[in-house]
Amino acid sequence: FDATKFLSQLRGKKMMFVGDSLGRNQWTSLMCMLTAAVPSSRTRFVKGQPMSSLTFL
């Protein structure tokens, strides 16, 4: 998994996971992989109900 390539392809775009707890687990896993691959990047995490968001700044 090339996280930097993934982030560059999604630059300026939004991505949404819709579904049940399985979708939430997939979102959490993707966010963990992205933040681990680019540890020096600035991020903004907003935890909400029912939606949370992670933005790479």
From TrEMBL:
InterPro entries: TBL, TBL_C. GO terms for molecular function: O-acetyltransferase activity. One of its GO terms (cellular component) is Golgi apparatus. Signal peptide: none annotated. Pfam families: PC-Esterase. It comes from the Eukaryota. Residues 1-53 form the Trichome birefringence-like C-terminal domain. Belongs to the PC-esterase family. TBL subfamily. This is Trichome birefringence-like C-terminal domain-containing protein. It comes from Nymphaea colorata (pocket water lily).
